[in-house]
Description:
Blueprint: H1 3-6, E1 8-11, H2 17-26, E2 30-34, H3 47-55, E3 62-67, H4 72-82, E4 86-89, H5 95-105, E5 109-114, E6 128-132, H6 148-157, E7 162-164, H7 173-180, E8 184-187, E9 192-194, E10 197-198, H8 200-211
Helix pairs in contact: 2-8, 4-5
Amino acid sequence: MTAAARTRAKVCGITNAEDRDLAIRAGADALGFITDLPVDSPREIAPDRAGALIADVPPFVTGVLVTMPESVDRAAELCARTGADAIQVHGLSDPESIAALRERAGRPVIAAVDADDQVVAPATAADAVLVDSAGEGGAGGTGRTHDWSRTADLAAELDVPVILAGGLTPENVRAAVETVDPFAVDAASGLESSGGRKDPAAVRAFVRAVTGRVRA
């Protein structure tokens, strides 16, 4: 099975219904909705807004809550409040917290790790690990790439799916997929016309480069 046939595409940082529907039409496998961050981001939306957008994500497309919570309790509360299909957490790095969140939320948990650290401890409890180029306070969305060869080694080592993030664009994502062979790739700022607004041509080109799907 080839990497192209296996790799999924996640469009992250959805802030409005137009961009949500654009990503769905383009053939994205998952959409990310960012809320409750301790740092400023043009892609952050209120929990109720995230829930309203997730409510209209169709079957077979995964609505992912992306957050950097102050506690496991807060993360579980946000997951229930938004109705997300899965939760991606930044800042919860110990396996005990990840395991507790899985039990409390009753949803798959994606644990984000800093590409520079390559900490693998969360992988022992998470359903998937997202490797990102972290910025202020450990949050992602920096628009910076990292050493994909190191992430390829990590992906080969781990028993859980690895999602590659950090500076991915329609222009470089094929090379990233060929180097890392990840379960999925994740892009946000690299698909924008301005902060928090997606560029339709970039979203379509990104999904096409990853999955081979050509959609309206």
